[in-house]
């Protein structure tokens, strides 16, 4: 009996210790996840930054989801309008009315400083050294299967070094070598469209077609991956994008991965499969380096760099991982955004057929019957204006994110180290105080002789981001855009299909939710 009592006594003291440890862990977690961020938010509030009231542990996620559901349901029968900020970001549109263009909102236990004011952004970037801008750790972790630690996600010295190594792969001479691949891939797509239309299928989902072609272009021109091989990677990347961005996974809520195990495991599995495929391409290319048959495309540049430094085993391992992450980053970042810019262009040209005619005349004048040459692209001025206007109205990259690495002082307010920052590009591109009352009209002329399109603030037009982290692939994009669009316009005229449903939506990028069915008419 005494023995039993002793063991009960031992058990209860173990329980007490466990409860104590658990309470200490809970206290530490609430301090780290809630009290400290809340104190930082209070400080910012005292300095005049408002924002919606968060609740623990979801922050403002519930409110955001509710507003989005309402907006999606009410926009099902939406007429075609280019004024869609309140549809894709209904919560930001409403909070802006209450709190202005700079405020704080919460994703789970992560506070975000929302910015739709270019002047505030300018002051902030002047004060922050390039290296003091990081990428939100919460997104880096969440998007790891897709981008790993590729250029888009690296920070500090590592980013400086990586950007320095990669930049030559986008030099004018390297881009020139990509022309043939762009022309050939587009011609293959157009031959397919001719076959489709001549067999009675006039309706083509051009978003799907152009995304596949753009994927082939980047995979082949930057990594030497041939079309059949790259299809697998592209399909898996698309599935990964859906797993990561098409579900409400409560990013920012501690341990959200455990709340959505199915999506988390699916993303991890797809990420690993893509890694294996990419690794097999890299191994093949490494062999050609060993035999001296290496080309100077992006993968060639990266492989040579990793060889130059891989005298220590540790470094070699790291370099191989980095190579895989860069390949994923560039294959995804390099095709999705460009394809969407072209898709939204075709949508607008279908809507305004007189613009198709104008561009066709320009192509006839500049290119005529000749083979495409890079030197011709600068002559396609009207097309350049159309491109800028599309990137303004339907910016494929709808937001830019940062995390302060170090305190940043703006207007005498200290934005503390670690603050997440969300820059709402769609809002700035649709702001009548920056662009005028015709802000929601498609008017390429606003870019005639003015690279800022008449925007009243030079940081109000940010399709490729800003500062040192501006898009590294923008020249490649502009070249691909003009080549693909010229070839399409020379072979087809097109109009919107009655099946088109106007529903811009965000799935990391800004895309048409139901694709872009067009009625194609061969010329
Ligand atoms: C319409 C086409 C494109 C748009 C709208 C676009 C947009 C952007 C934006 C807004 C950023 C800045 C992100 C940030 O600051 O966090 C960015 C960065 C980047 N883009 Fe693009 N992009 C396009 C095409 C491309 C292409 C064709 C490539 C590759 C071939 C590419 C690769 C990258 C990479 C690697 C970065 C990260 C750069 C860095 O952090 O140093 N993008 N892009």
Automatic annotation (TrEMBL):
Entries under PROSITE patterns matching the protein: CYTOCHROME_P450 (PS00086)
Transmembrane segments: 12-36
Entry keyword annotation includes Transmembrane: yes
Main location: membrane
Required cofactor names: heme
InterPro entries tied to this protein: Cyt_P450, Cyt_P450_CS, Cyt_P450_E_grp-I, Cyt_P450_sf, Cytochrome_P450_Monooxygen
Annotated source species: Corymbia citriodora subsp. variegata
GO molecular function: heme binding; iron ion binding; monooxygenase activity; oxidoreductase activity, acting on paired donors, with incorporation or reduction of molecular oxygen
Name used for this protein in its record: Cytochrome P450
Localization of this protein: Membrane
Pfam families, A to Z: p450
Membrane topology: Single-pass membrane protein
Binding, heme: 471
Superkingdom of source: Eukaryota
Sequence similarity: Belongs to the cytochrome P450 family.
Gene Ontology cellular component terms for the protein in this record: membrane
Record key words, sorted: Heme, Iron, Membrane, Metal-binding, Monooxygenase, Oxidoreductase, Transmembrane, Transmembrane helix
Phylogenetic classification of the source organism: Eukaryota, Viridiplantae, Streptophyta, Embryophyta, Tracheophyta
Alphabetized SUPFAM superfamilies for the sequence: Cytochrome P450
């Amino acid at each position: 009996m005494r023995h039993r009592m002793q063991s009960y006594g031992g058990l209860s003291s173990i329980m007490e210790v466990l409860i104590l440890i658990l309470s200490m862990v809970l206290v530490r977690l609430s301090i780290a996840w809630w009290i400290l961020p809340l104190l930082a938010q209070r400080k910012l509030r005292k300095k005049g930054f408002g924002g919606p009231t968060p609740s623990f542990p979801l922050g403002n996620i519930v409110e955001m989801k509710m507003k989005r559901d309402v907006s999606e349901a009410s926009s099902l029968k939406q007429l075609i309008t280019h004024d869609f900020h309140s549809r894709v970001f209904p919560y930001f549109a409403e909070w802006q009315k209450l709190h202005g263009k700079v405020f704080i909102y919460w994703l789970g236990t992560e506070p975000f400083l929302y910015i739709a004011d270019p002047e505030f952004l300018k002051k902030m970037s002047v004060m922050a050294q390039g290296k003091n801008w990081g990428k939100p750790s919460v997104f880096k972790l969440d998007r790891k299967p897709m981008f790993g630690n590729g250029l888009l996600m690296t920070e500090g010295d590592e980013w400086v070094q990586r950007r320095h190594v990669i930049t030559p792969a986008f030099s004018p001479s390297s881009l020139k070598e990509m022309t043939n691949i762009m022309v050939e891939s587009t011609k293959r797509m157009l031959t397919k469209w001719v076959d489709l239309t001549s067999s009675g299928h006039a309706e083509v989902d051009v978003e799907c077609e152009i995304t596949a072609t753009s994927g082939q272009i980047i995979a082949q021109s930057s990594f030497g991956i041939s079309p059949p091989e790259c299809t697998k990677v592209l399909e898996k990347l698309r599935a990964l994008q859906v797993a990561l961005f098409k579900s409400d996974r409560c990013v920012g809520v501690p341990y959200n991965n455990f709340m959505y195990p199915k999506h988390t495991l699916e993303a991890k599995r797809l990420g690993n499969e893509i890694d294996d495929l990419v690794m097999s391409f890299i191994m093949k290319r490494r062999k050609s380096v060993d035999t001296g048959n290496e080309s100077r495309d992006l993968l060639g540049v990266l492989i040579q760099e990793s060889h130059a430094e891989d005298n220590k085993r540790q470094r070699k391992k790291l370099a191989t991982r980095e190579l895989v992450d860069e390949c994923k980053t560039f294959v995804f970042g390099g095709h999705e955004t460009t394809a969407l810019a072209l898709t939204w262009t075709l949508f607008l040209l279908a809507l305004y057929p007189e613009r198709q005619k104008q561009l066709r005349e320009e192509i006839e004048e500049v290119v005529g019957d000749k083979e495409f040459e890079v030197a011709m692209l600068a002559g396609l001025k009207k097309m350049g204006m159309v491109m800028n206007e599309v990137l303004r109205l339907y910016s494929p990259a709808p937001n830019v994110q940062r995390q302060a690495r170090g305190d940043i002082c703006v207007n005498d307010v200290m934005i503390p180290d670690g603050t997440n920052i969300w820059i709402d590009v769609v809002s700035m591109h649709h702001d009548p105080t920056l662009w005028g009352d015709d802000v929601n009209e498609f008017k390429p002329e606003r870019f005639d002789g003015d690279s800022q399109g008449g925007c009243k603030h030079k940081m109000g037009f940010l399709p490729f981001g800003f500062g040192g982290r501006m898009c590294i692939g923008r020249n490649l994009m502009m070249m691909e855009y003009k080549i693909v669009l010229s070839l399409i316009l020379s072979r087809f005229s097109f109009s919107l299909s009655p099946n088109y449903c106007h529903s811009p939506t965000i799935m990391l990028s800004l895309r048409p939710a139901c694709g872009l069915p067009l009625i194609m008419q061969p010329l």
